[in-house]
Every structure is written in structure tokens, then in C-alpha cells.
Amino acid sequence: MAKSAGAGKPAKLSRADKAALRGAKRAKRRETWSNLKQAFTLTRQSDPKFLLYLIGSFVVTAAVVFVVAYLITGSPWIPIVLALLIGIFVAMLVFSRRAQASMFSQAEGQAGAAGYMLQQQLRGDWRLTQAVAGTTQLDAVHRLVGRPGVVLVGEGAPHRVRGLLAQEKKRTARVVGDTPIYDIIIGSEGDEVRLSKLNRYLLKLPTNLSKDQVRTLEKRLSALGGAKSPLPQGPMPAGAKMRNVQRTVRRRS
Fold first, then answer.
1. Average pLDDT for 222-231
2. pLDDT above 70 (res 139)
3. Do the beta carbons of residue 91 and residue 186 sit within 8 Å?
4. Residue 125: closest CA among 193, 55, 211, 57
5. Does 16 score more than 90 pLDDT?
6. 237 vs 126, which has greater pLDDT?
7. pLDDT-wise least confident of 151-155, 160-164, 246-250
8. Which of 118, 153, 168, 176 gives the lowest tally of CB atoms within 10 Å of its CB?
């Protein structure tokens, strides 16, 4: 039986589809540049040494690369191109690190910061359930399920969060049995874990479960339910009044 012409080939896009695709790409590029501009502005405002490190990293890197490449090639043109490319690359790395450090320093201590960070920047194979326990004062406990076992992350006032963690740990233990349960309080005192070091802490935890065991554990824990408190979606703005936010939380509860 003869195959129909063009069988198996992707259909050609119409002119309208191509225009829509180009428009979507342009919108995505604009959004990317807008995000970079916003990150640059916020980092510059909160980090006095940001521009010094950014310009310094570019100049030093470009100078070193140019000298080394010039000694090797003897031509000025190739070293110039290499110096510019590698200098820009290193400057972008510095920009990323300083912007991230600035973001964490501004977010630390704000209600909802840990939950937002876990949702947006968590590295590794984790199953996140936000605010499995909480209070109207915006304290919260978030639950992670992964290869190390169960991790309970508490944020808020330490004297209240410790009680929340103890209750949630006891409730979780009834379901998970001998599976390891780790509890963390986000903060900067004693045995607390800083928000900027949370990812590093989680990556250092030992592997105790297989992937199949993680899936089974997640299904069992889903019976415990999800969020108990309507926390803000992200760190609470610095100008927001805690009393007004708490009133809104109580209305939603």
C-alpha cells in the first residue's frame, strides 16, 4: 500500500503560528532581561560592594586571560576576544552569587521566606508539602520527603516553632515507623540553620531510602494532609504590618 505524501513529516506552521511563536520568544526575552535588570537594581541597592566586585572580577579576569593568551599566540586579536568572553562569564558568576546572597540576607527572618525558598530553589529529589503545621503568628513547619527520609523545616519564632516541630514529628512518626526524621529550625542562633545554607544542609544528609521507598512513603504521608495555615506566598514585604497580616490569616483559617 503506497504511503501518502508527506506521511510522518511534521505539519508546516502557518504564517500566523510563526508570528505567534516569534512573539512568544520576544516576550520571553523581554521577561528575562526585565528579571536581570530587577535583580541588578535590588542587589546594587542592598550590597554596597556589588559594583566593585562585579567590575573588579571582569577587569582582573580579562587582564589575566589577555596576558596569558598573548604570550601563547603572539597575536593581540585572539587574546582580546578570549579576555572579553571569559571576563563576562566570570562577572556573570559573581553577579549570580552576589544577587543570591543579597536575596537571602533580605529574606532571612521574614515570614514565608523558608517556604518560598523550598518551593523555588530546592536542589535534589525532594517532595515538598508546605505548612503541614502553623500558627496565626505565621510560624510554620514544612515537610520534605526524599532519599534521606523525612525532613521537617520550621520557620518563625523559635519558642513556638520547637513545639510545632515536636508535635509534627510525633504525628509523622506514627505513619513512617523507623524512617529517619530530621527537624530543622531556620535561623541564625545555636543549632539553627541559616536560610542561605539550607540547601547545603539537605545535600549533606545521608541516603537512607531507595526511590521506591520514597514513593511509598510519600503516599502514606499524604494521608496526614497538607497546609494548615494560609501563609504568604513568598517572604512578607518589609513594609507590611504583622498585625494586618495576622488578621488576614485568621480570617482565612
1. 60
2. yes
3. no
4. 211
5. no
6. 126
7. 246-250
8. 176
Q: How far apart are CA 94 and CA 141, in angstroms?
A: 33
- CA 180, 192, 250, 118 dihedral sign is negative
CA distance 20 to 14: 10
In this structure, the strands spanning 149-155 and 140-146 are antiparallel
* The three cell numbers locating residue 1: 500500500
* DSSP notation for the chain: -PPPTTTTSPPPPPHHHHHHHHHHHHHHHHHHHHHHHHHHHHHHHH-TTHHHHHHHHHHHHHHHHHHHHHHHH--SHHHHHHHHHHHHHHHHHHHHHHHHHHHHHHHTTSTTHHHHHHHHH--SSEEEEEEEEE-TTS-EEEEEEETTEEEEEEES-HHHHHHHHHHHHHHHHHHHTTS-EEEEEBSSSTT-B-GGGHHHHHHTSPP-S-HHHHHHHHHHHGGG-S-SS---SSSPPTTS-HHHHHHHHHHH-
Q: What is the largest CA-CA distance in the chain?
A: 77
